[in-house]
Hints:
Elements: H1 3-27, H2 30-46, H3 48-54, H4 57-88, H5 96-107, H6 111-122, H7 127-134, H8 138-156
Amino acid sequence: xxxxxxxxxxxxxxxYRPLRRLGFLLTGDWAEAEDLAQEAMVRTYRAWSRIxxxxxxxxxxxxxxxxxxxxxxxxxxxxxxxxxxxxSKEYAPDDGEEGVVLWEAIRSLPRRQRAALxxxxxxxxxxxxxxxxxxxxxxxxxxxxxxxxxxxxxxxGGEWPIADATNGRSTS
Length: 172
């Protein structure tokens, strides 16, 4: 074990429980507190050579934990806000009865397949851009589109002109 590792081990043993307690006081959930404390320790370890002499490592770890909690709260608030906006606006297609049937079939797809299909065919985005939006590899996007189209074909039957996943054109 190197001196750096030994120093950090001593620091970890002294500071982990107080960090975990701080996480619990901020969240009210021991599991989330554990995650925050672990994340703070990982980030502190990565910066150990920079902070052990100039700064107080305990203060650095507490700052990391509090900032991470704030970041997670901010992210969840934004996600909740967008979910509420999406739920509040019920989309009704203006393509007549066929549009309603198609929309119901699309809504029945799993969330990621639905997102991939809407981004690919309604927004007409390239697979690379969809991959960035969904935070997934391009191969995953191709798979989501293919599986989504297959499920739509099964649900709607053969008479529907459903786009071909390879070129975005109608197959009928």
